[in-house]
Amino acid sequence: MPIRDSKDSLSNNLPVIPNPLSPPSSRPSSPTTSSSSSNLTSECSGWVSSGDTSSSEQRRNAKLSSEQLRQKLSRIVPRKERPPPTKESVEEHSYEEVRLPPPKMFQDEPPPPEEFRDPPAIIDNPLYHVYETVKPVRSPKQTKTAPCSPQKNRERERERESRDPPYGARDICLDCYQEGKEMLQSTQDEAINFKKCKEEFKRQMSFSGKIYSDYPTLASTMPYFHISNEYRLFSPEGAHLIICVHGLDGNPADLRLVKTYLELSLPGAHLDFLMSERNQGDTFSDFDTMTDRLVAEILHHIETSGLNPTKVSFIGHSLGTIIIRSALTRPQLRPLLPRLHTFLSLSGPHLGTLYNTSGLVNAGMWFMQKLKKSGSLLQLAMKDASDVRRSFMFRLSQKSNLEKFKHVLLCGSAQDRYVPLHSARIELCKAAVRDSTDQGAAYREMVHNILYPVMSSSGVSLVRYDVHHALPATANALIGRAAHIAVLDSELFIEKFLLVAGLKYFR
């Protein structure tokens, strides 16, 4: 019984607060006590299970119990009044900043220690920009002795600095003048050194001709692709047919670089190229057979293309130059003789292979002639007839038509052992002059037969070119083959030759 009294007193003083997480109470908490065991259990657990009351009544009773609890708490605990906020408190606590570090993946790398940092560059340091706007940085080159008397210049600079304010316009002008004077002097020194080296090169090579740098202006100053190809057909000069003939064991692509640079260097000209291919793969046959093929190819090209050229030029390499000269003697090409313009010979054996100083090349030519049973190699050696004057090369010299051209260009190289230099340039050699045999006399007659009509004609210009190539020390350079094919494969030589000297003869 005492325990029950205590419960009664507790229940009378405090209402039962329903648990928000538990199911709603079916009976309102009242100050009256319950004698049943079920009612006691429900009071201890915080809710009373009964099916008599509805859910709306349960909500109303729960609200009332909460209001009663608030009223009792307000009576027990006195309400403290907050003082009105001051300006300082509003300013201090009006904005509360919470700065959290970004994620680790977005954080910047820590800077290196001070001793490992690079000094500020010119772009990063604003002082350099200010200094540049006032006065350029003085370089150590400006302190060199460009003028004649450096001591007097230093004294003048000191006097000027004492008179004029620093970083004036006169200082900038003087610095620019000194820089220009120094650059001019360095350019003059380079030009003097270049001339000295050039003269030393000529002296060592015993060369009395002209080299590329001796020409003050280029043969062509027009840029590549200046005029499109569609306007070439309307050239007032008409079509210019250029026939390219390859050499021994060659192909039509041998002279591709010459064709390319002629097209690039003459953008306004109507050029039509014929890259001969009829003799490809059969250059070891005799010259008469190869001449017939070339003549038929030229006539077929003119007929099929409907071309009426106003100029006809020939470019030949090595054995191809002999085929060109032989083709010009045929009556089928007689209508083209008045239109002949330029003949460019690249290492052509116009006098055969006589008096070749390379025994290795002579042995190789003899072996190839026996192996291939080549008629062309036999004719170049002038051994196709018992009498030298009845050989093919001698008979060709008697009816040469080189005087029909306006320009005859002969290119040869002393580094070429396949074709002797004197044969490529159509000139006498010491061995031929000293030779008192019938062969030496026939050789001298050949030179006279070719050159006399050319030299006696006032409308023909004969130009000889002695070419020296920068070749590596290889087996091809040793036997002379590298220089023989360099006129075809060396892009540097072809571009320099055409732009400096040879291009004007194709206009």
From TrEMBL:
Composition skew (Pro residues), residue ranges: 17-26
Compositional bias segments (type: Basic and acidic residues): 78-99, 152-164
Composition bias type Polar residues, residue spans: 140-151
Cited InterPro entries: AB_hydrolase_fold, DUF676_lipase-like, Lipase-like
A Pfam family it matches: DUF676
Biased composition (Low complexity): 27-56
Region (Disordered): 1-118, 134-166
Domain called DUF676: residue spans: 237-429
Top-level taxon: Eukaryota
Family: Belongs to the FAM135 family.
Name of the molecule in the record: DUF676 domain-containing protein
Species name: Apis cerana
